[in-house]
Amino acid sequence: MRIFVAIEITEKGILDNITQLQKNIGIEAKAVPREQIHFTLQFIGDVDETSKEKIINVLNIIEFSKFQITIKGIGAFPRAKLPRVIWVGVDKAGKESLSNIAALVNKKLLELGFKNDKAFKPHLTIFRVKNKINDVTGELTKFNSKIFGTQQVSQIKLKKSTLTPNGPIYEDLTVVDAKG
Question: Is this structure's pTM higher than 0.90?
């Protein structure tokens, strides 16, 4: 099974603002459904049942406190001139808090032999670009400083991702609540 560790966006106002942006921005790409918008702390990949159980056990001993993040700004990977992903970002304090929790998750998973293959860059994917599209720098610049809202982070989740022709289907495997 294909799994990853995530923080979901649950604040209705943030999701409403992102959905509104997806409808109004002039980008030819597939919008990520609002119920799938999340920060990926670490993509693990395909694992067997035994590995999944070990990962759940390790994640369940992680301790972290609740924290606030402000969803802010917009960008593209690898770059706006040739985008594959359009994303929404987070404020400086939120970036630091998310990076800290991602490092904690990474450290625990590394103990099990699961190495994170790329540096953590906190972002919410809001569009996936399948076909080559034109430079979207102009469209993105309009929303560089847009604030989408604030959310309290109080959970991390281990999620299963089943790929289908209509897009991925996510399922929670475990939920780790903040301790304070």
Answer: yes
